[in-house]
Target: Electron transfer flavoprotein subunit beta
Amino acid sequence: MQPESAMTPGLEVTVLVSVGRHPLTGRARRADQDARGVELARSFADAQVRLLHAGMRDESSEAALRGYLGMGFTELSLLEQPQGADVLPALAEALDATSPHLVITGERAERGEGSGLLPYLLAERLGWPLVSGLAAVESVEDGVATLLQALPRGQRRRLKVRLPAIVTVDDAAPAPRQSAYGPARRGAFEATAGPVSVDDEWAAWHVQPARQRPKRLKIVKAASARDRFKAAAAKAEGGSGQVLTDVTPTQGAEAILTLLREEDVLR
Model:
């Protein structure tokens, strides 16, 4: 359990959640970075935390979104949007209407474009400051949040940001708790209609699963008996391989015998 941060009573926090994609099976799940944002919001003492999702409501996405409800929530706000719609106008209108003090979201989505630009576009439209790579929220006092930003190589930077603000989290944020099955099934969705903006550019794109390309093998030219023996007896390493050319089995055996004689193994 994460320690509770020093917070101003009545702090309103909205966490933007999305439907994730399992990296191996491809099944719908709660997005890892969004779940970390929910876990971060759960560490705030005396804060009113609200979950917000904009997208389609079907069987697979509903099952994935219930993973967030299983983290200790009874309700999730859902802005219904058709497939391929631009969710930016709907989210901006909803956040402008509720005016939360802090908005938490993941760095990028696991489905769709996954460009990571949505938090920046929201901050630009709402006129709010944005902090990326958040590791922790230390305190919120007098409308100013003290944040701990994650930097490369495990470094941290302390920032002070005036609220309202948008923050994004990545793998440096606290790991999410396991989703409880009972609360996840009992949780409810509060569906509302928002403005629909069709993304014509995204509709014109053709998306297909990426296929891993075969890696080229590095060809080693055998110049001496020692080199041929090392290439034949070298342990294969993951991620790369070597092919020994221009060497027959007889030449390989002769090279091994020659090398063993040089090392005084055979007398």
User: Anything to note?
Assistant: The longest strand covers residues 130-141.
